[in-house]
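dude i think i finally got it to work??
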Amino acid sequence: MTIHKTGCQFLIFLFLILLIINVGIFSLFKDDHLVYKLFSTISILFYFAIFIFFRRPNRVVNVNEKHVLSPADGEVVAVEETIENEYFNQKLLKVSVFMSIWNIHINWIPVSGIVKYQKHHNGRHFAAFLPKSSTENENMTTVIKMADNREILVRQIAGAVARRVVTLVNKTQMCQQGNELGFIKFGSRVDVFLPLDTKINVKLKQKVKGSQTIIGTLK
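look at this
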């Protein structure tokens, strides 16, 4: 397991800030070791919590053109038919995975293909598990066109705490199932829109693993 590149600069910056604060606390309370030890312990625990948030696991992906892999670690919060209004403008199956702050926040590519469409949307920051977050929160939409011309839409959605959606693929880029799609910082959600005839392999409240759990099987 390594640290994801999106967190490297932030972790260095946070380390320097905490170091400066601890030096200041030490100079103010150098005669009160209890205060300094307490503050330094809290700083270490806080830094460790942020450090593990950016962890990047090593996973083996079983590539299969019929399978749709989970785009994220977390809990399934929606499995439903709904109208997708941004790109398809038609009814599709939607599977939504909510990532708590404790989950790995890397997003993975659910199917292999070429990036056909991509667009970032500014928005609000409702709690990511709420249905309205799918359309009203800051989000990034990516459509992947598969070799058989079917298209799958993936939407990365920022949450109440999340303030940045990072996408690591670009329009017209060929992408491999199980590779990294991007990263969302501090609590978020990913929606996947699938053809209506897709067999859904997950249910509400099920825990899933990104690039590992098969959320759907294409006809």
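The chain has a mean pLDDT of 87.
im so relieved honestly
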